[in-house]
Design brief:
Elements lengths: L3 H8 L3 H9 L6 H14 L5 H8 L4 E6 L5 H16 L3 E6 L4 H13 L4 E4 L6 H9 L4 E4 L9 E5 L1 H14 L5 E5 L5 H16 L7 E3 L4 H12 L7 E4 L2 H13 L9 E6 L12 E4 L2 H18 L6 E4 L2 E3 L11
Parallel strand pairs: 1-2, 1-3, 3-4, 4-5, 5-11, 6-7, 6-8, 8-9, 9-10
Antiparallel strand pairs: 10-12
């Protein structure tokens, strides 16, 4: 592989002249630039990204941690982040923590060692290791979707509590009085907030909130939770499922039990992943603005990296209800 010395020798110029041509750091005569560019093409010279990063103290690279790459919600956010990174001249290193706190800690350390310019983190729960690592980071960092208490980082998330309340209010408005909830893990802030929204809406309507099942934000988890709900002594007439992936599993369990959706049971989800439009029937759900979440995360990092912003920003985005065919009025059931 050709080195910068080889290019300089071939073009009959100094190494510093080659460096200035490659990095555009100083004026170089047209003849010298032409000779250097010809030498680069002739030798197939590839400039060292490591060397450039050591000199400029920037790698033009961002790191991102997600909890589960098989969840379409995270995949859709990653797509938005990567598109905006590429358009801004940055590359993205993606790490899947697989919902494992230890793996999360290792990846954070690895990304810091690779000298990424910024970090986007969707956390895998809250642990003491995560708190210590985040508080010790000097790399600009944005948290997405999940808050981490007592850590002062930029944050972009949807108003989960309002979304849970909105979903439940929709079911109440349809005349449902026994409304179950399939929540995610109890120790994750989005799950806890969505469940609290469910409780708030039921309390406002004077309804009981005793029909709560916890699962793991997977389709299998939603399937298992719905099976448990359908085996309970008093079946609900509607179920709020705290993410669409569980909602897909819940719909499958209901179909397997011979129930018609929404004639026998109304189901509403949360996230509005692309697959939600293609379930049978299409899933009524709460929309998270995933593309905007990704755009804001990258923009907030670039504000710190390129503009030197030091104050902490928190962006709380409002959810929306999208009506499809999985919910119906209680008197039509």
């Amino acid at each position: 592989m050709a080195s910068i010395k080889d290019v300089a020798r071939h073009a009959n110029v100094s190494i510093s002249t080659v460096s200035h041509v490659v990095n555009r750091t100083r004026f170089v005569s047209d003849k010298a630039r032409t000779d250097v560019e010809a030498a680069i093409r002739a030798l197939d010279y590839v400039p060292s990204a490591v060397a450039r990063s050591l000199k400029s103290n920037t790698t033009k690279t961002l790191g991102m941690l997600i909890p589960n790459c098989s969840n379409p919600y995270f995949a859709e956010i990653v797509r938005s982040v990567e598109d905006h990174c590429f358009a801004s001249g940055y590359t993205l290193i993606l790490c899947n923590t697989d919902d494992a706190p230890r793996r999360q800690s290792v990846y954070l350390q690895v990304l810091a060692e690779k000298r990424v310019d910024g970090l986007i983190i969707i956390s895998t729960g809250e642990t003491s290791d995560l708190h210590d690592l985040l508080q010790g980071l000097t790399t600009p960092t944005v948290l997405l979707d999940r808050e981490v208490t007592h850590v002062h980082c930029d944050l972009v998330e949807t108003a989960h509590l309002q979304g849970g309340q909105m979903a439940t209010e929709h079911l109440v408005a349809l005349g449902h009085q026994r409304i179950a909830c399939i929540g995610g893990p109890a120790d994750l802030s989005p799950s806890a907030q969505r469940i609290q929204g469910w409780r708030n809406a039921l309390a406002a309507a004077g309804l009981a909130d005793d029909l709560l099942w916890h699962s793991d934000f997977t389709s299998q988890g939603g399937f298992n939770a719905m099976q448990a709900i359908l085996q309970s002594a008093h079946r609900p007439s509607a179920v709020f499922v705290c993410n669409d992936l569980m909602g897909i599993g819940a719909l499958s369990a209901a179909h397997e039990a011979g129930l018609r959706i929404p004639q026998d049971l109304s189901v509403i989800g949360f996230d509005d992943i692309e697959l939600a439009r293609f379930t049978s029937p299409p899933l009524t759900t709460i929309v998270q603005p995933k593309q905007r979440i990704g755009l804001l995360a990258v923009d907030m990092l670039l504000e710190r990296i390129q503009g030197g912003r030091t104050d902490t920003k928190q962006m709380l985005l409002q959810p929306e209800l999208v009506l499809r065919a999985s919910t119906a009025p209680k008197d039509k059931i």
